[in-house]
Design brief:
The complex is a heterodimer of chains A (558) and B (221). Chain A is of the alpha/beta class and 558 residues long. Chain A has two domains: 1-49 and 85-90 and 109-161 and 237-331 and 491-558, FAD/NAD(P)-binding domain, CATH 3.50.50.60; 163-227 and 332-418 and 448-484. Chain A has helices at 19-30, 65-70, 128-131, 133-137, 147-161, 186-199, 243-249, 298-306, 398-407, 451-470, 535-554, and strands spanning 9-15, 35-38, 163-164, 178-179, 203-205, 253-256, 259-267, 270-278, 284-294, 332-340, 359-361, 380-389, 409-418, 427-435, 441-446, 474-480, 518-520. The chains are: A alpha/beta (558), B mainly alpha (221).
């Protein structure tokens, strides 16, 4: 790794090394371009993975006061634990503000690979019902790209990262290039058969970026369970051990860690590089490049541009439309149901294979087949599982209680992930009175889920309960509320793509309308959130945008 | 980034303020050593600053077995009462119970770092047991023989019983106090190595691959 990068001018500077940054570095460096991959966090090593460390060796068994003190927001994320909290930002050093009564949970990492180290790995394609949703229901605007534009890039990404899944031939959830699917439990098969027969709905095994067969030099999953603590066999996709590794192997990519980018440096209407603050020395440094690709995550990339105001761009670079930061979205969650299958007599085991994946119910509201729902637009999908579990909540004391715990119960649950509508009034901006520990102005995030999102979750609770009941579940409990924004950790929008520079920030290739050598290929470019987990789409969009950028380099347009 | 198979909120049973038992158990079951996937995790490794104690390989459980252990939150009476209570709820049988799993020591550690209102709730819950013990049997819980301890707790151990033959089922007075204490004790017990062994854990980390259901198709509906 070259340490003194200041004297060198790169072809492309990629900011962020997560799912999209890794792909940008790989794609561009493999095309022969000289790339600087700039990451705010430190390097990561497989030697610090803890997926095989039992929790009783943790002093506080995952209730560490240090996590509570330094990560009060990050610990809202299921993956931030006593095992790995140092991967997540220290909330005391990385503040942001929200208006009163508008809480937002911003969960983020500062480490090579970013959130790809701890992501949930669920990988679903969007369909044209999503890309062209506005044409169907009249709300907001369509994406400027269609499924046909992105499909070849989904193929490229899936073939590389390895996605296990089953083909379902469902127009709402296009099939992809799958490795063999993981298996379902008895309860899951019962639920699948029941809801297909009684409701015509599709339940499939989760499509997950976890290998079920050897793939691209990586071993298949060994079913230990907690992927978010790392994987010694690299069986789930994370960028440091795949895309970033490939990029560095080309000899064309220079990795710069501990580099917190504060802003994009401009020369008139061209980006000429970025300025970063070294994470430990706090020294300010610059990197020069002919193009800049922001992959720092939607809110962070937007923050960088808003902090890059110049005389030409007083509201932030690339913000002539005034829309930079607007249309922030995050999937709405909170609705769902759980129950027990009392007639499935399967004892829980303390030694099961831990399948790091669940089931997925494909969106069935407002589809071409089901027609328009009277109370809301768009829809939701369900994630969940059905497995026998021990029951420490069993009644009793003494010997009988110990026995009852081991008898367990056969649980089944479904949790909804609903579309978050693009709304101009959900936004982020720079808080003029708040800076992070490196002196970089921080964000103010203002977002609430609206009436449509609330209706989606109410419906999700009801439909989940009716499906569980139809499958014979007992003790059904449902929830119909909405969690605060941010809790799905699927934040997208803030720099939407479009054909019209007055109505969008980026063009269909994620290139800034205002600054032709500036791209944003993370979730910021999304026009709508759909209801599917977004990372696969972000990666496909990144590959498409980078291939286009390579062409522009070849045509000497950059 | 999505949660893997997210826990729908509805699925999280009401849990005590200190410990989410489900999380404790989930994490606890994912334990053991890997065979056939290269070298096992080395607890001697040290990489660089910025790592968690876990990533450094530190064994945090040693705190509980330190011969010089002293309670940092509980008074001596509270500590002894908690030991007695946990021993009745999860006694030694063919397998070790809560007392040998040092449940009291772990809960003392947890309580020491909890907010004041959580600490106060626990103290109140524990005091309720003594109060009822005094009221019904004229002695502190700690001073009762085991049969009387079981007799006292049984009223809360099976919630939802009818108070009389003709009344609708309703919670016994003080049910919440007992439920919170039991949940804490159970969480601490099943989160310990002894608790995991009680459930049958074999000490290994991997038991894959997952083979799923082997019933015939169409037999589940």
């Amino acid at each position: 790794m070259a340490q003194d990068i200041r004297e060198k001018a790169y072809d492309v500077i990629v900011v962020g090394s997560g799912a999209t940054g890794g792909w940008a570095a790989k794609r561009l460096s493999e095309a022969g371009l000289k790339v600087a991959l700039v990451e705010a966090g430190r390097a990561v090593s497989a030697r610090e993975f803890t997926e095989h460390m039992p929790s009783f060796l943790l002093k506080y068994r995952n209730h560490s006061p240090e996590v509570m003190r330094t990560r009060p927001i990050q610990r809202q994320c299921y993956a931030c634990m006593e095992y790995n909290y140092e991967w997540f930002v220290n909330d005391l050093e990385n503040p942001y503000s929200t208006p009163p009564n508008k809480p937002f949970s911003w969960q983020r990492l500062r480490i090579l690979g970013g959130r790809s180290l701890v992501w949930g790995r669920q990988s679903y394609r969007l369909s044209d019902v999503d890309f062209k949703g506005a044409s169907r229901d009249g709300y907001d605007m369509d994406w400027p790209i269609s499924y046909a534009d992105l499909s070849p890039y989904y193929d490229i990404v899936e073939r590389y990262i390895g996605v296990s899944g089953a083909r379902e031939n469902n127009t709402m959830l296009p099939d992809g290039q799958f490795l063999p699917p993981m298996k379902m439990s008895c309860g899951e098969i019962r639920l699948r058969e029941t809801i297909k027969q009684k409701f015509g709905r599709t339940l499939t095994i989760g499509r997950a970026a976890i290998l079920t067969a050897p793939h691209n030099g990586r071993a298949p999953c060994h079913y230990c369970g907690p992927c978010e603590r790392g994987c010694m066999t690299y069986s789930y996709f994370s960028s440091p051990f795949t895309t970033v590794k490939d990029a560095l192997k080309t000899g064309n990519c220079t990795l710069v860690t501990d580099a917190i980018v504060s802003h994009v440096d401009m020369d008139g209407n061209k980006a000429r590089g970025v300025t970063y603050i070294h994470r430990t020395t706090r020294e300010s440094r610059q990197v020069r490049g002919r193009a800049v690709v922001l992959c720092a995550q939607a809110l962070e990339s937007t923050r960088i541009l808003l902090n890059s105001s110049t005389r030409e761009y007083p509201r932030g670079v690339g913000n002539s439309s005034g829309l930079l930061g607007r249309y922030l979205m995050d999937h709405v969650v909170g609705g769902g149901a759980s129950g027990t299958f009392e007639d499935l007599k399967v004892l829980p085991s303390a030694n099961p294979p831990h399948r790091p994946n669940g089931i997925y119910v494909v969106r069935f509201r407002n589809t071409p087949d089901t027609g328009k729902h009277p109370h809301f637009i768009r829809g939701y999908g369900f994630q969940g599982d059905s497995l026998p579990e021990f029951d420490p909540g069993a009644p009793g004391i003494g010997r009988d209680y110990k026995k009852a715990v081991k008898l367990g119960r056969y649980m089944v649950s479904l949790g909804g992930f609903g579309e978050s509508l693009a709304n101009f009034d959900n936004f982020c901006e720079i808080d003029p009175n708040l800076k992070d520990a490196w002196g970089i102005p921080a964000l103010r995030i203002s977002m609430v889920h609206g009436k449509n999102e609330a209706s989606l979750m109410r419906d999700a609770g009801v439909t989940a309960a009716e499906m569980l009941e139809a499958a014979g579940a007992k003790n059904i409990r449902l929830t119909t509320g909405t969690e605060m924004p941010g809790m799905a950790v699927h934040e997208v929008g803030t720099a939407r793509m479009g054909e019209d520079p007055k109505k969008s920030v980026l063009n269909p290739f994620c290139q800034s309308h205002d600054v032709s050598n500036l791209l944003m290929t993370d979730g910021s470019c999304f026009v709508s959130s759909a209801c599917q987990n977004p990372t696969l789409t972000m990666m496909a969009i990144t590959v498409r945008a980078c291939d286009h950028l390579v062409e522009r380099f070849r045509r000497r347009e950059v | 980034m999505p949660p893997p198979v997210p826990e729908p909120p509805n699925r999280i049973v009401p849990c005590p303020p200190l410990i989410n038992r489900r999380d404790l158990l989930r994490a606890a079951f994912l334990a053991g050593t890997v065979k056939g996937f290269g070298p096992a995790f080395s607890f001697a490794q040290s990489i660089s600053a910025g790592l968690t104690p876990a990533a450094h390989g530190e064994d945090g459980s040693k705190y509980l077995t330190d011969p010089k252990w002293k309670a940092v939150f509980l008074s001596d009476h509270q500590n002894q009462t908690l030991i007695a209570l946990s021993d009745v709820i999860i006694p030694d049988t063919e397998t070790p119970g809560a007392k040998r799993a040092l449940v009291n020591r772990f809960l003392d550690l947890l309580l020491s770092v909890e907010p004041a209102h959580v600490q106060a709730q626990f103290v109140d819950d524990l005091a309720f047991i003594d109060s009822e013990s005094q009221s019904q049997l004229g002695k502190n819980f700690l001073d009762l023989n085991v049969d009387d301890q079981i007799w006292l707790l049984s009223a809360w151990a099976y919630p939802g019983q009818s108070s009389t033959w003709t009344e609708e089922a309703r919670p016994n007075p003080g049910q919440g106090h007992f439920d919170r204490l039991k949940a804490l004790i159970a969480g601490a017990y099943y989160g310990s190595e002894i608790g995991q062994r009680e459930l049958g854990w074999d000490g290994e980390f991997t038991h894959g691959p997952y083979e799923g259901c082997d019933h015939q198709p169409e037999t589940h509906s």
